[in-house]
Design a protein that fits this description.
3 domains; alpha/beta; about 30% helix; Metallo-beta-lactamase, Chain A; 16 helices; about 475 residues; Oxidized Rhodanese, domain 1; six-stranded mixed sheet; single chain
């Protein structure tokens, strides 16, 4: 059976391409749809359907642009109420894609409309399931996201729905089926996903905690809801965009992909309505940056941190990028619904620097110099997630996770020196740029972060799990 996973690591997202006899279907596409169109053209195929497993929270789907460009029909599972033309399927309804069959399995729980698609080959043999956020590799979808959009739902109600969806619709299927989930490790849509992005259903029945055959419904609900962190603030906004509709990516690119002269850029940079976003690597940002700019580098989980740290999804954004990275920056902003980039500084930071304009820098130290600093009782602020910090951290370090930093600035005295670290330097540089925006200057960042610190043998402490939690 010809099914391909198209994986985007920076947001831990998997879309799927299915093709048979000149017809194709795309499952859970990203915002930029041209790669799917190009893939179908390679097979001389026409995209017939866009299947959505649910209204996504962590990214804006490309269903509308695919439908407009290719004439494809958008398909949702039962109970979905999209604000645009789409086919809302019935449970067990079947769709033909060439000689293949796609069967709808209604599996509510992650969200109310969550649906799994059973793939059946030309001989009638069941091949796999595109499970969306119902079933991951090693985990299942968290049930606390839809409640932020639908008022009368609770996470417990959805968790109980998910328990029955898994046991009545998924677990009775053949062990040989391949599980094709919508996300892998790193996504905030689950809490303990595997780095593997496919597996057999049989192996998941053996290894996935949520599929234990002897698990009661109450046990399932308790285990599923324990340890859930607060979902990123942009999730409900992305859900609404996926339900209600949005502008075409072509329109967004036309608005944002505009080269700004130094004079144009400077005028915009003084506006309170405009955010300066620098997408360069941490090490380059530290050596010199435009004052008051926010650094979120493209090389890591760019879109996720944009969504976490920029509260207004309609924020006007002017970009500072490496030359040639402007279009990629705009596309990756759009993946999480930040559609209001209004231009970029032509020539990037070097244009600003070469003009003699004022620049700022971030002081950095190597891990082998950190111990000397700590002996002076200079505080070390660790901006990793609480779970990372609890696992292991430098002795006496203070944990202020990056996504909480803006709301906890009052805990950091401006007049005293301190040091920043994260895991490898990416997040601590984002933190440094936020601190600089807020008038903090007397701090240093550890190059290489905690990974480098551990290699130097600096004293650390590990979290010891209380016996009551074992």
């Amino acid at each position: 059976m010809k099914v391909e996973q198209i994986y985007t690591g920076c947001i831990a997202h998997a879309a799927y391409y299915l093709e048979s006899n000149g017809e194709a279907a795309i499952f859970d596409p990203l915002r930029e749809v041209q790669p799917y169109i190009d893939r179908a053209k390679k097979d001389n195929a026409k995209i017939k359907y866009v299947f959505e497993t649910h209204f996504h929270a962590d990214f804006v789907s490309g269903h509308l642009d695919l439908a407009q460009k290719e004439g494809a029909k958008i398909v949702y599972g039962p109970t979905a109420k999209p604000g645009f033309e789409a086919l809302v399927a019935e449970d067990n309804q079947e769709f033909k894609v060439g000689n293949y069959t796609v069967k709808v399995l209604y599996t509510p729980g992650h969200t109310l409309e969550s649906t799994t698609y059973l793939l059946i080959d030309e001989k009638g043999k069941e091949h796999g399931i595109i499970s969306g956020d119902t079933l991951f590799i090693g985990d299942v979808g968290r049930p606390d996201l839809a409640q932020h959009v639908i008022a009368d739902l609770t996470e417990e109600k959805l968790a109980r729905m998910l328990f029955h969806s898994l046991r009545n619709k998924i677990m009775p299927l053949s062990d040989e089926l391949i599980v094709y989930p919508n996300h892998g490790a790193g996504s905030a849509c689950g809490k303990m996903m595997s780095k593997e992005t496919t597996d057999t259903l049989g192996n998941q029945k053996k290894t996935n905690y949520a599929l234990r055959p002897d698990m009661t419904e109450d046990e399932f609900v308790k285990e599923l809801l324990t340890g859930l962190t607060t979902p990123p603030g942009y999730f409900p906004k992305n859900v609404l965009m996926n339900i209600q509709g949005y502008e075409s990516l072509d329109t967004i690119m036309e608005r944002g992909n505009k080269a700004l002269s130094l004079d144009e850029f400077e005028k915009l940079s003084t506006s309170l309505e405009v955010l300066l976003l620098d997408t360069r690597r941490a090490e380059d940002f530290a050596k010199g940056f435009i004052p008051n700019s926010l650094n979120i580098g493209l090389e890591s989980n760019f879109a996720m941190w944009v969504g976490e740290l920029i509260p207004n999804i309609k924020q006007k954004i002017v970009l500072i990028t490496y030359p040639g990275k402007e279009e990629e920056s705009i596309i990756r902003l759009s993946r999480v619904g930040y559609d209001y980039a209004i231009g970029y500084l032509e020539g990037g930071f070097e244009t600003w620097k070469n003009s003699g304009m004022l620049i700022d820098t971030v002081n950095r130290i190597t891990a082998d110099h950190l111990e000397n600093e700590l002996e002076k009782n200079i505080p070390l602020i660790d901006v990793r997630k609480k779970s990372e910090f609890n696992a292991e951290h430098v002795l006496d370090a203070i944990n202020i996770p990056l996504n909480e930093l803006a709301n906890r600035l009052n805990e950091i005295p401006k007049g005293k020196p301190f040091i920043l670290n994260c895991a490898g330097g990416y997040r601590s540089m984002i933190a440094a740029s936020i601190l600089k925006q807020n008038g903090f200057t007397n701090f240093k960042d550890v190059i290489g972060g905690f990974n480098a610190i551990k290699n130097e043998g600096i004293p650390t402490t590990e979290f010891v799990c209380p016996s009551t939690l074992l």
